[in-house]
Please model this.
Amino acid sequence: MGSVSEVWPNGIPSISQSARRSRLVTTRDIESFTEISGDRNPLHYDLQAARKTRFGGIVVQGGVTSAILNAVVAEDLPGPGTVFLQVNWTFKGPVRPGDTITGEVKVTKVREDKPITELETRVFLADGTTVLDGTAVCYTMPLDGK
Model:
């Protein structure tokens, strides 16, 4: 992180700065996302139906795949107090229970007048296969209420 300012009290992110985090995706993630969203698509639950699709088996919801990017921006870069203003994501491939996914962001633009960053975003599997890529615009607000 760069210098501290009134706009960026925790330091301004640097162009090309990046962060990533990984996690194992489980069947419980499918169940939890269903509880939140109501998404009961057979692709996530019905092995026989899912096997007949181009995916060839059970896949997790896209919201489970993209959620790791929420964690990266809120916890790592730009960090606490950050929310998405806009996302443009393309889902490139399936994620299955038992896969380890890594979410990665890279800063491409930083506004000095407002705490807004533009990011390249990507989620990939342990073998390097990209399953989501795109961009995001984020806003970082101070958590002290100011």
Observations:
- The longest helix spans residues 62-75.
- The beta strands are 18-24, 82-91, 100-110, 116-125, 130-140.
- The CA atoms of residues 85 and 146 lie 20 Å apart.
